[in-house]
Each structure stands twice: as structure tokens, then as C-alpha cells.
Design a protein that fits this description.
The chain is mostly helical. The chain has helices spanning 2-25, 27-30, 34-59, 66-80, 86-108, 113-139, 151-173, 176-186, 188-193, 198-224, 229-232, 236-248, 254-273, 278-292, 296-315, and strands at 144-145, 226-227. The longest helix has 27 residues, at 113-139. It starts with a helix and ends with a helix.
Length: 316
């Protein structure tokens, strides 16, 4: 009976996921106009948030580098977009971010706690200022124009990146590699004594997460048409994924997805309605989430359900 129930539940979830994927794949056919543009932004934030969670969730390392890898992808699109097709410069943006993360991770992932967080944030500022200096004093320019792509094409590219990322995270979590990654977060010294090459596991995961951030950056750059270092390496792209992951909850795979989707939607609406207050509203939501939802939305729902069930039993 239990096996049949588990099989039935798995079949239902697979069917539901398939239906959602079909609806997303056909979205531009029945919801043209602004909706695909909005969904592209939501997918972008989901990719950044889930990629951040892929590394920082199980290891406990607070990375503030998403803006660096995202910006590298954006500049890859700006440089290569005029010469190669869209899929090529998206992959190139991901690979460029992967290589940067691999080098940075190999040098810095022996740091822990606040030292790692400070370094990763400093990496964003370092790359930004180097590009500002290079463009102004060497190239004699400020910013670059990016090749324009139809918004439906951008939507499908972002959807593909999202699906590949979710499959990657799913298979990593169910693999021995994912078990080793989880053991690092629980007790890094014990994991090392058990034979886990903790540095290699951390560096590879850090680089894989950066690949998807860079690919998302290369894709979204074609919608912005013009970029400069301050746009590409905006520090908000380092902090927002953290806020979205905390809000959604990192205990389950779908937690960061829900948190990023809600926050991204709110941002789109608040920027157009309360452009001067939306960051203040974000801050209030974050404080409330930390105080009253330590496990995020995915932890709040079961807790409310248990409280409701307990109240019903007490009444009976």
C-alpha cells in the first residue's frame, strides 16, 4: 500500500510538473505582450536565487558574488553578441563565469564565515572598478550596446536555462556529490576526516552555480540593449538572491523558486508604482521573514498546518 501511494504521488507530481512546463512553453502563444517580459524577469531572479542556494544552502558559506558572475555574463553578451549566435554567447557567458568562479574559489574557499562573504562582495567591486578604468582610460568609451533580440526568444532562452538548472540541482541533491556537499555544511572537519575532498567539492559547486548566473546575465543583457559596469555589476544582484532564498526557504528545492517568483513579481509592480519606496518595502518584508519565518514560506505552511491540526484535536 505504501509503495503504491508513493508511486501515485510521484506520478501526480511528474504530471503536474509536465503540465506547468507545457503552460510555460506555450505562454507567448496565449499571453502575448508584457507577460513574457515579466516572466523573463521572474526566471532571471529564480535562476540567480536557485544558483546561489545550490552552493550557499548546503555549505553554509555566505556568497555575495552573484553580481560578479551575472555581470561577467552580461559583458560576454555585449562583446560577442554581434559576432556569434544567441546560444553561443549565452554558453560563453556561462563558461566565462564558470572559469572566474573556478579560479576565485580555488584561491578563497579556504576562507570561512564573514571573511568569505567580504571577499566575494569585494570581488564584485573589484571587477566593476577594473572595467570602469579599462573602458574610460584604455578604450575611451563608457558602456556598450548589446545586440537586440526579440523578447519571445529571450523568454525561451531563459526558460531553457531555468529547466536545465532545476534538473542539475535535482540530480546533484540525489547524488553522492550532493551528499558530500551536505556533509560539508553539517560539519566540514568531520567530512574531511571521512575522506571528502571538501575544497574540490566546494570549488566545483561554486563554479557550477556561477555558470547559470553568467548564462542568465548573457541572456538578459539582450533585453537591456545598453550596459555599463555599474549596470552589469549592480550590487543588488548579489543581495536580492539572498533575500529571495531566505524568504522562500532553503529547506526544499521549490522554496527559493517560490521566494524569487514572489519577490520578482513584487519588484516589477513596486518599481512602477512606488519607485522610491520599493527597497524599503523589501527591507520590511525581509525583517518580518527573519523574525517570524526562520524557515521561509516552505517552513511556515507546515507549521500553520500542524497548529491548525493541533487546534482541531484539542476541540475534539
Amino acid at each position: 500500500m505504501d509503495i503504491a501511494r508513493v508511486t501515485s504521488k510521484r506520478s501526480f507530481l511528474l504530471g503536474l510538473l509536465g503540465l506547468i512546463l507545457v503552460l510555460l512553453a506555450t505562454l507567448p502563444l496565449y499571453a502575448a505582450g508584457y507577460t513574457p517580459i515579466l516572466m523573463t524577469s521572474i526566471f532571471m531572479y529564480i535562476i540567480l536565487t536557485v544558483s546561489w542556494t545550490l552552493f550557499s544552502g548546503p555549505t553554509g558559506y555566505m556568497s555575495l558574488a552573484p553580481a560578479a558572475f551575472f555581470g561577467v555574463g552580461i559583458y560576454a553578451a555585449a562583446i560577442l553578441g554581434k559576432y556569434v549566435p544567441l546560444p553561443v554567447f549565452i554558453v560563453a557567458g556561462g563558461l566565462a563565469s564558470f572559469i572566474v568562479a573556478l579560479l576565485v574559489g580555488a584561491l578563497t574557499l579556504r576562507l570561512r564565515g564573514i571573511y568569505f562573504a567580504i571577499f566575494t562582495f569585494g570581488l564584485v567591486m573589484l571587477i566593476m572598478q577594473l572595467l570602469v578604468f579599462w573602458e574610460l582610460h584604455v578604450m575611451g568609451i563608457r558602456g556598450r550596446f548589446v545586440v537586440v533580440i526579440h523578447y519571445n526568444t529571450i523568454y525561451y532562452a531563459m526558460l531553457i536555462i531555468f529547466v536545465v538548472l532545476m534538473l542539475t540541482v535535482y540530480f546533484i541533491k540525489r547524488s553522492k556529490f550532493g551528499l558530500a556537499l551536505q556533509s560539508i555544511g553539517e560539519n566540514e572537519e568531520a567530512a574531511a576526516h571521512a575522506g571528502v575532498n571538501v575544497t574540490m567539492v566546494k570549488v566545483i559547486t561554486f563554479a557550477v552555480s556561477a555558470f547559470f548566473m553568467g548564462a542568465a546575465g548573457a541572456t538578459i543583457a539582450t533585453r537591456w540593449t545598453y550596459i555599463d559596469p555599474y549596470i552589469a555589476f549592480n550590487v543588488l544582484f548579489s543581495f536580492l538572491p539572498v533575500l529571495m532564498a531566505i524568504f522562500g526557504g532553503m529547506g526544499q528545492l521549490y522554496g527559493p523558486v517560490i521566494g524569487a517568483a514572489i519577490f520578482a513579481y513584487l519588484q516589477e509592480k513596486l518599481v512602477t508604482t512606488f519607485s522610491e519606496l520599493y527597497m524599503l518595502i523589501f527591507g520590511i518584508v525581509l525583517v518580518v521573514a527573519i523574525l517570524y519565518m526562520p524557515d521561509g514560506l516552505v517552513g511556515l505552511i507546515p507549521r500553520l498546518w500542524r497548529r491548525r491540526a493541533g487546534g482541531q484535536r484539542a476541540n475534539t
